[in-house]
Design a protein that fits this description.
Strand content: 35-45%
Order of helices and strands: HEEEEEEEEEEEEEEEEEEEEEEEEEE
Radius of gyration: 22 Å
Distance between the termini: 40 Å
Largest sheet: 6 strands, mixed
Helix content: under 10%
């Protein structure tokens, strides 16, 4: 876990610490493995952390949504990794400790995720380091882009992913929090990734993956879900999104959101406000009487019509429980558009 992220609070320590660790590793061990570490714990308590390896402060002030480059680390020997608050003074301050023994010549992607706070998050899977031991830095085919997919949003439902721009269809089936989906080898092109519920019937969100425009041909990257689907249930923490991680590390790259509208529906006119909403959800740009309206929760369960009322251009949603919902408009049995809203 060398050269992990940017240093902020203690800049004079980091160069010496890292240099010492590199020299000790190079002199003492002939075996090595390649490792990239990604900080994806959206808990406010772990927004910035210190990392200790075998009792040595190795990485100081590691920031959320940043990544290390792939780096050589000693293989075949125990590495005791401790993660501590950013004001720590020793490895004894660590709130998380785990021992790893890396395999020589293997390539690892390690993603930090989960919740350390005792309250304020729902659900709250514990902070952990999630290891993928078949990592890549370059694509298997130099004309393609290899994409490792990881579901890192603690409150997102089990999801499928479909590519809808060039017609690749389903690329991920039923991925849950902390799970990796092995590498998908994409031809160098620009794509739209649509996330759907577990059954694949309800669109949740969509994002643009401009692999060709970003010049990623011949590269292997990680694309991960990050943040909270429902920030209101998670201490108003960072919102959900898809992010790409370069093998060179640095800040995670947000994928731009794409409209969920389908066919020839004018998605630019379909707007919901206020969002989040307490009582009245206004719908701009469409005549609701022209569509069948379905409101579902993020698991895809249709909410009974008794929980909302249509009145002109707005919906009374005061009877809905707090949470994240999707409003979908249907005509002749086909979904024309779908948008997410949060009920406070």
């Amino acid at each position: 876990m060398i050269a992990f992220f940017n240093l902020k609070k203690k800049p004079m320590k980091k160069p010496l610490l890292l240099l010492s660790f590199v020299i000790i590793s190079a002199v003492s061990y002939s075996q090595s493995a390649r490792v990239q570490v990604i900080h994806n714990s959206a808990d406010a308590l772990t927004a910035t952390v210190d990392v200790y390896v075998n009792g040595m402060l190795t990485l100081d002030n590691v920031n959320f949504r940043t990544a290390s480059p792939f780096t050589d680390l000693p293989a075949g020997v125990p590495l005791i990794v401790g993660v501590a608050p950013d004001d720590s003074t020793s490895a004894s301050d660590a709130f998380y400790t785990e021992t790893f023994t890396l395999t020589e010549n293997e390539t690892y992607v390690i993603i930090a995720g989960g919740i350390e706070s005792s309250t304020g998050y729902n659900p709250a899977p514990p902070f952990d380091l999630h290891v993928f031991d078949m990592g890549r830095e370059t694509s298997m085919d130099p004309l393609k882009v290899d994409v490792l997919i990881y579901q890192g949003s603690t409150d997102a439902p089990v999801m499928d992913a479909f590519e809808t721009e060039v017609g690749l269809g389903q690329i991920v089936d039923n991925i849950a929090y902390s799970e990796y989906q092995g590498y998908f080898e994409f031809p160098s092109d620009n794509y739209t990734i649509e996330l759907r519920n577990e059954a694949g019937t309800q669109a949740l969100a969509a994002y643009i993956a401009a692999l060709e425009s970003l010049g990623l041909e011949g590269i292997a990257v990680t694309v991960l879900a990050s943040g909270f689907f429902d920030p209101s249930q998670n201490s108003n923490g960072p919102a959900f999104g898809l992010y790409a991680v370069s093998p060179l590390g640095g800040g995670l790259i947000p994928l731009p959101p794409a409209p969920l509208a389908v066919e020839d529906f004018n998605e630019e006119k379909f707007q919901l406000y206020p969002n989040p909403v307490n009582d009245i959800l206004n719908v701009h740009g469409v005549d609701l009487t022209d569509y069948d309206i379905r409101i579902s929760d993020i698991s895809g369960r249709i909410v009974s019509e008794k929980f909302y009322e249509i009145e002109n251009d707005h919906l009374k949603v005061n009877s809905l429980s707090s949470g994240v919902y999707l409003i979908s408009l249907y005509a002749d049995g086909d979904m024309k558009a779908s948008e997410k809203f949060i009920k406070l």
